Amino acid sequence: MELTCSRCHQTVQDGNCFCPNCGLPQLVYSAENSGDAGQGERWGEAVRDANSVDWSSALRSTLPLAIPTGILCSMLSPVSIIGLLMMGGAAAWVVALYTRSHRPTWITVGAGARIGFVTGVVGSWTAAAVSGLSLYAMRFWLHQGSAFDDFWQSLVNQWQAQVTATGADAQNVAAFKTVLISPEGRAGLVLVAIAFLMGTLVLFAIAGGALGARMLTRTRRPEK
């Protein structure tokens, strides 16, 4: 017999204790199993809504993974090129760790996405802080600012040559170049780059958390 969830009206497979879409417990009485001694012992157990998140427990799983991943995702990290995938994988891992100690041992995609969002926020802020501190240290403590300035100057010169070759107004291009190579222009572009990095990390973490929850839903087995 096909069952439907009383909350979202999605199809629930026979034997599933929770709706795979919204996580609502599916309480069905079966006369055939009424004499099962093990079944009676479970009536007193507290059942968590799979769509809700115990944030105190979630943060205990989030911080040990999100902070190191954020450090590896910083702009000057040698592995930052794969930082987005690392952040998505970290969020999926957080979801797996979180569900391991909870019942049901899975969560909805929405709850996984929310855990991924928190993981991404913690990781992105860590990445931004490490990026800013690294740039500050390299410029003012290690006195490597001239190397950055020369590199940026060469990039701006290449951009100017390419834009001028397309027939753009040379005076406007030169004025914009002056803005780009000014201290304010360099600082503004660095802030934009860090903000873009943070937003992208959060998006990948949300996707990773949702994907992790989806995979748990597909691989779970009905509890006996």
Quaternary structure of the protein:
single chain
Q: Number of DSSP helices?
A: 7
Overall pLDDT: 82
Question: Mind telling me the C-alpha Rg?
Answer: 26 Å
Helix content: 55-70%
Strand order of the largest sheet: 1-2
- Beta strands, count: 2
Structural class, from helix and strand content? mainly alpha
Strand residues, percent? under 5%
How many domains, in number, for the residues? 2
Order of helices and strands: EEHHHHHHH
Question: Main sheet?
Answer: 2 strands, antiparallel
Give the termini distance in whole angstroms: 19 Å
Shape: elongated
> Which blocks of ≥5 consecutive residues have pLDDT under 50?
29-45
Keywords summarizing the entry:
224 residues, mainly alpha, 2 domains, two-stranded antiparallel ribbon, 7 helices, 2 strands, 64% helix
Question: Would you spell out the secondary-structure blueprint of this structure?
Answer:
Blueprint: E1 3-4, E2 11-12, H1 37-41, H2 55-72, H3 83-100, H4 109-141, H5 145-165, H6 170-181, H7 183-219
Antiparallel strand pairs: 1-2
